[in-house]
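Appendix B, record 7
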Amino acid sequence: MKKYISLLILILISPAFSLAGGMDDDPVLTMLTVDQLEIRTSNGNSPLVWEAEGWIGKDLHKLWIKTDGEYVDGNLDEMELQALYSRAVAPFWDLQLGWRRDIRPTPQRDWLAFGLKGLAPYHFDIDAALFIGTNSRSAMRLQAEYEMMLTQKLVLVPDMELNLYAKSDADTGTGSGLTDITAGLRLRYEVRREFAPYIGVNWSRRFGQTADFARAEGTSIDDTQFVSGVRVWF
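Structure tokens (predicted):
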């Protein structure tokens, strides 16, 4: 696995060395979006959750960094980091290749990542990915989001994520098959386009053996949380 990670690092950084050159009509641009920075409140804990991504690059080639995670009672309960080379292949669509590391829960897991990200018909934001890990592990993820402009300032955003794993991993509490689904509905007020506080609701459900692992640890498999947070981008 280490040699594949080294190869991926070379693939990821090689476009960055060429970013300084090129024509003025294709400048190097950057973007950082903290899509979710929120407190989720339910009958149990009230975790701090974040989901953010950023990129640097030109029109066709970009380096993406994605991260999400969760703090509970001052402890880092979940965290994931991805570094991806992204290549535009069609209007509004990018193919992505890179590396994913599951930092929490332990033990840490590394994956090769292959993704497709873009804007589907009717303005659905889609992020689909296939992950290949060690010991014959593989996984798939689908994320979808839609923004409904209620007014010039109010935006209603439904979103959904589902994860599937080909192989059970008892050390991380992950079963095979469909492991979990998360769905949310958030209403944000754009004080400025770059700064928008929001409120909403988030629902999550574990399935199959993943649910069995959670029950064994005394963790809920079905949770509905009220959320309040802020979305910012630079």
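Remarks on this record: The chain is about 10% helix and 60% strand. Residues 9-13, 16-22 have pLDDT under 50 and may be disordered.
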